[in-house]
Amino acid sequence: MREAPVGQRCPDCVKGENKTVRQARTIFGAAVSHGGTAYVTYTIIALNVIAYVVELVHPAVINRFDVFGTGLVDAAGQYYVDDGVPAPGYQQIGVLHGEVWRLFTGAFLHQLPGSSGFGLTHIIFNMMWIATLGVFLERQLGRGRFLALYLISALGSSAFVVIIDPHQGAIGASGAGFGIAAAYFVITRKLHEYPIDRNRLLLTFVIWLVLAAGFTSWQGHLGGLLTGAVVALGLAYAPRQKREIAQAAVLALVTLVLIAAIAAKAAG
Q: Are 176 and 153 in contact (CB under 8 A)?
């Protein structure tokens, strides 16, 4: 038996009462972790690093899994612009021809060392920002919401690439990175808490957006940014009484809109 303020109480009674205590949650619905490990953030980083190692061993995977709207490939593996009228011996490839996995796989690929553009710094910079912003957002939103935010931002990034410039391939986690950057501004504004200086962060991403435009896909960056902002607004300002339902509805609606836009592009 255990001592109680009045008399004694059995251990099973104490355990039963402890089960009824509600777990503390953030205003976004996530269980308060008190500095718990950000498993989703670190898993995303690990997957990007693994994909990069695969690229180093087999560089051809980039052309097979990048975000690419439409193109032609011959029997020798040579790529050509798709003019809408495939000739005999040429195969149409890309998201608009059913290779929908490219919408996500391209977000885990990065430029190889020695390639034009940023090379090795491409993955280093992206992983740095995912780690910096992801840990904070995952603890505030919870693992499921943060994962949804990241993946839908990646989808929005790919959708803009496919719709605006379907003949140009794109790779990189920066589209999703811009999505979680937009979410950071929304979430911190809701919290009135700024663990990273907002002005410095904004300046960094504006510089990155401008400089990277000549080497990477501005369409992907813009798509990820806008998508992440919309998703974050839905997660942050969902009514408390029906928060989970409203948040799920926002996630589903944004996803359906992006899929419908891609489908419309494919049909047109």
A: yes
**Spatial distance between the Cα atoms of 71 and 81, rounded to a whole number of angstroms:** 5
Q: What pTM value is reported for the model?
A: 0.86
Q: What is the CA radius of gyration of the chain?
A: 22
Per-residue pLDDT of the chain (268 residues; tens, 9 = 90+): 445 455 555 656 545 555 555 667 777 777 776 567 899 999 999 999 999 999 999 999 999 999 999 998 887 778 777 777 767 778 889 999 999 999 999 999 999 987 766 678 889 989 998 999 999 999 999 999 999 999 999 999 999 999 999 999 999 999 999 999 999 999 999 988 888 877 777 787 777 767 666 667 889 999 999 999 999 999 999 998 899 999 999 999 999 999 999 999 999 8
Q: Are 78 and 60 in contact (CB under 8 A)?
A: no
CB atoms within 10 A of CB 99: 17
